[in-house]
Design goal:
The structure holds 2 protein chains of 2 kinds. By secondary structure, chain A is of the alpha/beta class. Chain A is built from 13 helices and 8 strands. Chain B has one domain: Rossmann fold, CATH 3.40.50.280. The chains are: A alpha/beta, B alpha/beta. Strand 3 of chain A pairs parallel with strand 2 of chain B.
């Protein structure tokens, strides 16, 4: 029987029982959003939550997929069941995508109990920000641990992904920048672990030094997490060098999170963020409707030049919120 | 299921056929037609393609064949899809002599796209076999 005809609840039962094509189908529904996605999120929310979530990010071509393939192999050989969500960009023009992360992983993961799913950003970042935690929970409920999220490090999406992960790994390469670059704001601030990949190339030592110097400054404004300094690991992902050290660093960070209130605090922040995104989405639909319908007539007054856009927006907001109580 | 649902297709080459230029062109054509291409590339096996199709919940499998192995490998792929109860179409592209066309369709291949197929035909054929199956 085709898995397309089954209800989310039936698919969920099969997926938790270990059936991969049902799990694959569930992820499609989660990705698509809507009532089915909400049902699945509800089911997996109650079932899972114990697994570790690792985010891997870095510039295009840094070797993230190849590294993830090696991490998956290392983790699977230790007797665990890892899963990967590999995110690639959708074309803003056609909406299509070439999801090319698997091609770097298949050689090493073929013989292991690992689940790899490619996801396209599908244009709307808010959608992805919901689909990712939803997909992570389904994989977690199906018994995969850890769940690794891999994204291209080119925008705000990556910081969102960091928000969905317990441990964030940032991958850089020799020659990627200098100490000034390292102290610029952005992706580097969210790293729990740094990987200098392609470390067989010249400049790997310089890259490590610049990152160390950047970390040395973390205390000046109280950004450091007491008792924890992000590890810097040198890897050559194409031959697997350093993969075991990265896994060990991930485990060490996991152990660190287990001390005090750290993990619970991260999870609370994740839940808050997810609620914020969901609210934004719910309100977004209502805003679109309000702009289209113009129930108070203020938008017509503004387009006629009788009211400023700011005043029209304030009036529309008042109407939007008063209609709800 | 409406037509607005994004098509996800796996593109791969089976066995030791190393000519992947055509596959890359097709990947680009389908991307530009709004589809999500899960690109597996070279040296795949029927098992590795099935594993990917399950995990990716693919709507179709596209095989590129340029080493005259299509009469052996394409029916094997169709068999593997059936055995896995996946119920998704297999499309073959590449060098396929006219005489082999009907036998391939008889073996369960959903469509065959030969050399020189215009981009619009490639995209439409994939869409058609996917929506016929939904």
């Amino acid at each position: 029987m085709s898995r397309r005809d089954l209800s989310p609840a039936a698919l969920f039962e099969l997926a938790v029982g270990g059936e991969r094509r049902s799990l694959g189908r569930l992820l499609t529904l989660v990705e698509r959003g809507g009532p089915d996605a909400d049902t699945i999120t509800e089911l997996s929310y109650r079932a899972g939550g114990a697994g570790h979530v690792v985010g891997i990010t870095g510039a295009p071509g840094a070797g993230k997929s190849t590294l993830v393939g090696q991490l998956v192999r290392t983790i699977a050989e230790a007797g665990k069941r890892p899963a990967v969500l590999a995110v690639d960009p959708s074309s803003p023009l056609s909406g299509g995508a070439i999801l090319g992360d698997r091609v770097r992983m298949d050689d090493v993961v073929a013989d292991h109990d690992a689940f790899i799913r490619s996801m396209a950003t599908r244009g709307h970042q808010g959608g992805l920000a919901l689909a990712i935690p939803g997909a992570v929970r389904v994989l977690d409920a199906a018994g995969y641990d850890p769940v690794i999220i891999e994204t291209v490090g080119v925008g705000q999406v990556e910081v969102d992904v960091a928000a969905a992960a317990d441990t964030t790994v940032v991958v850089v390469n020799p020659g990627w920048g200098d100490a000034v670059q390292a102290n610029k704001a952005g992706l580097l601030e969210v790293a729990d672990i740094f990987v200098v990949n392609k470390a067989d190339r010249p400049g790997a030592g310089d890259a490590r030094r610049d990152l160390e110097l950047m970390l040395d400054l973390s205390h000046v404004s109280g950004q450091e997490d007491e008792g924890f300094r992000p590890e810097i690991v040198l890897t050559t992902a194409t031959d697997g060098t350093g993969a075991a050290e990265v896994v060990a660093a991930i485990d060490a960070h996991r152990a660190h999170l287990g001390t005090g209130d750290r993990l619970a605090a991260r999870r609370r922040a994740q839940v808050r963020e997810e609620i914020r995104v969901r609210l934004e989405q719910l309100l977004g639909h209502r805003i679109d409707e309000a702009v289209a319908d113009d129930p108070t007539g203020d938008i017509a007054r503004a387009t006629a030049g009788d009211l400023s856009p700011a005043a029209a927006a304030t009036a529309a907001l008042t109407d939007l919120l008063s209609g709800e109580s | 299921m409406g037509d607005d649902v994004t098509v996800r297709i796996i593109l791969a080459k089976l066995g030791l056929d190393g000519h992947d230029r055509g596959l890359k062109v097709v990947a680009r054509i389908l991307r530009d037609a709004g589809m999500e291409v899960i690109y597996l590339g070279l040296r795949q096996t029927t098992d590795s393609i099935i594993a990917a199709a399950e995990q990716e919940d693919a709507d179709a499998i596209g095989l590129s064949m340029h080493n005259a192995g299509h009469m052996t490998l394409a029916p094997k792929m169709v068999e593997a899809v059936r055995a896995a109860q996946l119920d998704i179409p297999v499309v073959v592209g590449g060098i396929v002599p006219d005489d082999d066309l009907q036998p391939l369709l008889d073996a369960g291949v959903a469509a065959v796209l030969g050399p020189g197929s215009p981009a619009e035909d490639v995209a439409r054929t994939v869409r058609d076999v996917v929506s016929a199956n939904r």
